[in-house]
Specification:
- This protein is α/β, with parallel strands linked by helices.
- The protein is built from 15 helices and 22 strands.
- It is 35% helix and 23% strand.
- Helix 3 crosses helix 6.
Length: 481
Amino acid sequence: MTDLDLLVLGGGTAGLVSAVIAGGLGARVALIERDRTGGECLWTGCVPSKALIEAADLAHRMRRADRVGLTPVEPDIDLTGVMAHVRAAQEAIAPHDAPERVRAAGAEVITDEAVFVGPRRVRLASDGREVTARCVLVATGSQPQLPPVPGLAAAGPLTSDTIWDLQVLPPRLLVLGGGPVGCELGQAFARLGSAVTLVERAPRLLPREDPEVGQLITDRLRDEGVDVRTGTQVTEVAAADPWRVRLTGDQPGAVGFDRILVAGGRRPRTAELGLGAAGVAVTDQGAVRVDSRMRTTAPGVYAAGDVTGVLPFTHVAAHQAGTATLNALFWLPSHVRYLPMPYVIFTDPEVARVGLRAAQARHRWGDRAIITRLDLTEVDRAVAAGRTDGWAQLVADPRGRLVGATVVAPAAGEVIGELAAMVARRGRLTDLYRTVHPYPTYALAAVDAVGEHLQARLLTPATRRLTRPLLAALRTAARTR
């Protein structure tokens, strides 16, 4: 097969976005996917996890209905039914990611595996045919990676790819990894009724976030019955009745379990692509090296999505793919900017962030960095809902331009979008404050945080020394009218 403008390897989010854009623009494009289109997001990531979290959240609210004056109820949970809900969500979304949609956009879809045999040339595994194209996009995603723990493989570990095959709720679930996936799934299964132990080798959960974020999520999980062990690692999985692991570190000991979930560590799917034949360099972790235009080290070869090892989120993959596709087809110089790229951790409360953290801003600008924050105890919507754990924190440069935000709250993922848009357009804190927001909403946490900052700066004794004479003069003028 020749005369292609674009060859896309991988039918996940990045590959689908690229093929649909290129086909819609009239390019000759083919997408090669070895399994099923939709990728991790649809089949093992975003969609199933959020469907599971929704069921778990409802179960949790039923148990704690007394916080809003209702009688709490213990839900009767059947994991088979919950997983049926998960599959129904996937089936409803699947047509959007189906090969038919890609073909309707004008791209060809090939179910096969491919390996590079030269610059911008691949060979199909099924019949040995070679496919060449003017440019190639590598979008093969990532896969779970098991840590080298003795005895782990014999225990039949679950991963974020395989946990969706469960039909019976594990009485005791051991979760290895306290990052976003471990915290989300650990909390969800605890709310569904499993006795969950969560082990994280770093000193705190969510180690890439501010320390107080990790502490709040730790406190919330422990309040819900999760045995959280930070600064701790598994040294051995012992086959016995029951299964158990040996732990060392800050909280050592032995912990029994029925199933174990490895929720940390993924590696890019690059090992079997033959990237060396195409001149594509990879990192020590196997990620494809790309620049801000999503170009690899090989002319005409681009990459997008998890295979790049950069911010492994669906919306990031889509943005990378759109940029890479237009750059590849039309030789454009568009760049991906990561500072305004938001993301959400779907724990309860949600954790949403964009741009710089407070510590990063202080490191860059010192005391001139502007940090303003409001706790949810001061937000009327949170008080009315009885959900006051969390805060909104905004980070601005010395000129008052928003460069980062962290929102820890219910619906934080809905709030962060506006703040990300402001970071992208270099908006100022005053722009956010002047925008009228509906009351009562969680979004007002960010607005009120700015309001308190502005009041602290403007409503000072020095200001009153200026305004009092002016008010006095205006009162005198009014009496003489």
